[in-house]
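ESCALATION

Customer reports they have been waiting on this structure for their group meeting. Please prioritize. Original submission:
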Amino acid sequence: MRILVLQHSPLDHPGVMRRYLAEDGIDWDAIDTYTGMSIPPLEDYDALLVMGGPQQTDQEDAHPWLVGEKQFIRRAILEESKPVLGICLGSQLIADVMGGRVGPMEQPEIGILDIETTAEAVGDALLDGLPVPAKTLLWHLYGVMDLPPGAQHLMRSRVWKNQAFRVGSLAYGLQFHSEITADMVMGVEAYPEYVAALEAQQGVGALASLAEETESNASELDRSARLIYDNFIGLARAQKKQGRQ
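Update from on-call: job pushed to the front of the queue and completed.
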């Protein structure tokens, strides 16, 4: 098994999923697209993981590499029979390239919050077994306003409707995080726009408080991340087996 991971900042890596990949002996290559690294052909991999980042989907002028990455993601979904999982920015990129609408939120959604599944999520391969509601970490200034045509709406929160969706049978977008650790939360101090949004809602010093809350919920977040990871790898194994037949 080999997984291709697209990363958009030093902070936005697979988090606790790195431990799972090591435990399972699965090889993975991280491509830092934000530095201009070339993305290798997906044919050499069994699945694609697209991480979060401080960029926004409409910032192609500021981040020209987004153009090529969007094209790659679209081809991966339409031309490759392999699972694709986008988290936060990754989910918004999937929505954008598949005909959905992404835009700025009036009120950013930030904090440890509960999300719940929709009726369309019953029996879904990626979310099967996820607690309802599931506790997650949310931190986004943009959101998926409209899902791509034909997409399945899978999860919602009290604040934001489009928390998870599926395009076809193998491409998933998750707005929420369960892979993030308290150390990763503190790393957000490198991105003033995100800290400002947090402090505007919750006051000065809110970053340290959110890190503490993340740590106190680490076990529950880890369980959800592990379940999503296991289901995603299961999809990849099934597709790999089917390709051999």
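Sent to customer with the following note: The mean pLDDT is 95.
Escalation resolved.
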